[in-house]
Amino acid sequence: MSDIELQSAVKLMRQARENARGYADFFTWSPDRDQEELGVVRALAETLALSGEAYFDHIRIRGRGEDPPDCEAVNQLGQRVAIEVTELVDGEAIKAVKNSGNPYKWADWSITKFEESVNHLIARKDSRFPYLKDGPYQGGYTVLLFTDEPMLSKKTVELYLASIVIVEPKNIDKVFLLLSYDPTLKSYPYFTLTNK
């Protein structure tokens, strides 16, 4: 490795360390948000394929300035799919961890907070539909929520989803919720929240 390459690598590591939030950051690819979104979409695609529910492949990141959508892919019929990615995370918990240095200041997730947060994120992405670039997307519009919230385990999310109402979006064809990798499952738990 040359000195220039080493300096560049050290600079990236410093940036990542400065931007690290220290909370619910399994999927974080600091400082590159595009790579983070691409990684999340790939994790879902691989998990769906392992479950025998392959939905899309040939994933491509669109990049800042070319979004929305964050990514596009091709479904099993060869049609382009628009994919928007958004994180389900408690911003106050991120601040609490950063300010205190205590990595265990985890957010409490009541069923009401979960329901309101999920519906808010879906509604926000649903409103972005008219702004999708380079359409039409014959394969539809997919939204991928992801989370690494410590208190939102697979079991908790299953219980909550059995008791809440997900408001049906007008423009989104599919909504997935992807949890961070579970070594006991050797996979990423995921849930299909809406499916037209």
Helix content: 25-40%
What sort of overall outline do the alpha carbons produce when their principal axes are compared? globular
Query: What is the count of distinct domains?
Result: 1
Spans of at least 5 consecutive residues with low confidence: none
**Through-space gap between termini:** 51 Å
Residue-averaged pLDDT: 88
Strand order of the largest sheet: 1-2-3-4-5-6
Give the DSSP E fraction (strand runs of 2 or more residues): 15-25%
- Assembly type of the chains comes to single chain
Nearest-angstrom radius of gyration? 18 Å
The SSE string, one letter per element, is HHEEEHHEHEE
Separate helix tally = 5
Alpha-beta classification: alpha/beta
Largest sheet: 6 strands, mixed
Q: What is the number of strand segments?
A: 6
What do you see in this structure?
This protein is of the alpha/beta class and 196 residues long. It has one domain. Helix content is 35%, strand content 19%. The protein has 5 helices and 6 strands. The protein has helices spanning 3-19, 33-50, 91-100, 111-126, 154-161, and strands at residues 56-61, 71-75, 80-87, 141-147, 174-179, 190-195. Strands 1-2-3-4-5-6 form a 6-stranded mixed sheet, with helices on both faces. A hairpin with a 4-residue loop joins strand 2 (71-75) and strand 3 (80-87).
